[in-house]
Amino acid sequence: MKDLWNGITRRLWKAISHAFIAFSVMWTLTEGLNHFVPEIQIKGFIALAIIVLISIGYALKQVWKPSKIEIKTSNTNTTIEVIFGDLFQLEGVRAIAVNEFFDSKLGRPVSDKSLHGIFINKCFGGHPESFDKQVDEQLKGI
116-139 burial by CB neighbour count: b if 16+ within 10 A, else e? Predict the structure, then answer.
């Protein structure tokens, strides 16, 4: 439901336009069927309610924003899973690319808008000294 809500809030006008287009197409088909095949009469509140519900359902499907997608690579047994959201809220092992010198000073070497800079701000309070200390300990002898 969170994925659907994100899609609606971020693309409200797109949802409205999809609902209107779906309603228009179904209404046109219903009126054409009523006109050209008089034995079949689709009229009344129930028919209108069904068309409206189908239109809304179609619009919601079009603006649904998935929280993850899977991409299967051909000729291998590999699937790449792309997850949308806050990397720091996820469970499991995460890898963040840095340069070969493990720079930690925010500013010129490490942009505070990069993933590495956000990591230093979020996990180390923006203080590079503690990050440097842990890197030095882990890379001792290498």
Answer: bbbbbeeebeeebeebeeeeeeee
